[in-house]
């Protein structure tokens, strides 16, 4: 399993050849090499961009970015003009601008907290970005903050896979941050700072389909859209909402959300411009090759907090422990008997606000 995780995928050329540069040798996989090449040459369907002919309507408030794209956003808490603290929130995989910390309005008013959630590029009503990256996610947060007039510094908060934007902010715009918080942040198994054996063991405990989806996301992102559309291939249980959840609360929450149609409605909102531009680009950004290793970041000029459940079935707690242990400046909060859906933990949103601002 360690070899499967860490070995790079061979470069394939059409015609059953494998090579580097001008040198080619017979592909031992034979027609499989040609088959994969043809899959790579099949482009994903174009996005159905909001507000364009044939696309979904624009119903949300949006800001225009410097490259011409739009970001859709949703505000909560107290008015930004009177707020003492201003948060930009990055939603998780399958989420949208409508997600938040789920803090009570009473605590938000007591502390003076304003929060803005936004559809990350390609999600909901935010325009797609074919050049999405960890860096672009962070810069989108910065441009949104500037467009809304959130002053020189703001708080970056993220949930699950959306925390790649927070890691990006700590790397690319630390001078703009008053603080940062990450809730159950997804870990990239290929970060250089992770012990190879520990990462490979945690990876090996994932469902077979998730292992393959992550390997394709990392080694062959160009065929991910094709791979995920082949039901006879092992594909992501996370996308299908069938992942085994060892934590009882997580399992109950997912069962309830599936029963009342909430999961389906969230998926429809998130993917209305195309599942490739939302879910699949998320996967290739999160599990692709990063330009930096989070465990090599210098201490930022602001406090950073990280919350993790010890029964998280989506983010291995031992990898999170290693990340927090390597970064002495991360304030690590491990929640016993808790899974991945931290927004379902009673009072946690209020606890996060009081920890950041109390």
UniProtKB/TrEMBL annotation:
Transmembrane segments: none annotated. It comes from the Eukaryota. InterPro entries: AB_hydrolase_1 (IPR000073), AB_hydrolase_fold (IPR029058). It comes from Panicum miliaceum (Proso millet). Residues 86-342 form the AB hydrolase-1 domain. SUPFAM superfamilies: alpha/beta-Hydrolases (SSF53474). This is AB hydrolase-1 domain-containing protein.
């Amino acid at each position: 399993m360690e070899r499967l995780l860490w070995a790079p995928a061979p470069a394939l050329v059409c015609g059953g050849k494998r090579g580097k540069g001008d040198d080619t040798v017979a592909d031992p996989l034979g027609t499989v090499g040609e088959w994969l090449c043809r899959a790579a040459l099949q482009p994903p369907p174009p996005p159905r961009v909001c507000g364009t002919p044939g696309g979904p309507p624009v119903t949300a408030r949006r800001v225009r970015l410097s490259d011409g794209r739009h970001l859709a956003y949703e505000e909560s808490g107290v008015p930004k003009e009177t707020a003492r603290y201003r948060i930009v929130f990055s939603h998780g995989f399958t989420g949208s601008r409508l997600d938040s910390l789920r803090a009570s309005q009473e605590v938000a008013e007591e502390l003076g907290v304003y929060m803005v959630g936004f559809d990350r590029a390609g999600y909901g009503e935010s325009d797609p970005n074919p050049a999405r990256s960890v860096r672009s996610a962070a810069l989108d947060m910065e441009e949104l903050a500037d467009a809304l007039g959130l002053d020189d510094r703001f708080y970056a908060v993220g949930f699950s896979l959306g925390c790649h934007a927070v890691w990006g902010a700590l790397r690319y715009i630390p001078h703009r941050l008053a603080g940062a918080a990450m809730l159950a942040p997804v870990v990239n198994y290929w970060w250089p700072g992770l012990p190879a054996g520990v990462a490979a063991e945690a990876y090996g405990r994932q469902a077979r389909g998730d292992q393959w989806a992550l390997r394709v996301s990392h080694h062959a992102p160009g065929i991910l859209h094709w791979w995920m559309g082949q039901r006879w291939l092992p594909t992501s249980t996370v996308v299908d909402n069938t992942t085994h959840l060892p934590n009882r609360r997580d399992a109950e929450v997912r069962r309830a959300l599936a029963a009342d149609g909430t999961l389906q409605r969230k998926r429809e909102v998130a993917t209305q411009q195309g599942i490739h531009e939302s879910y699949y680009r998320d996967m290739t950004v999160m599990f692709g090759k990063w330009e930096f290793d989070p465990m090599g970041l210098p201490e930022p000029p602001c406090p950073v907090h990280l919350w993790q459940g010890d029964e998280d079935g989506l983010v291995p707690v031992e990898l999170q422990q290693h990340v927090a242990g390597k970064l002495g400046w991360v304030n690590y909060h491990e929640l016993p008997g808790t899974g991945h859906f931290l927004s379902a933990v009673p009072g946690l949103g209020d606890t996060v606000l009081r920890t950041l601002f109390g």
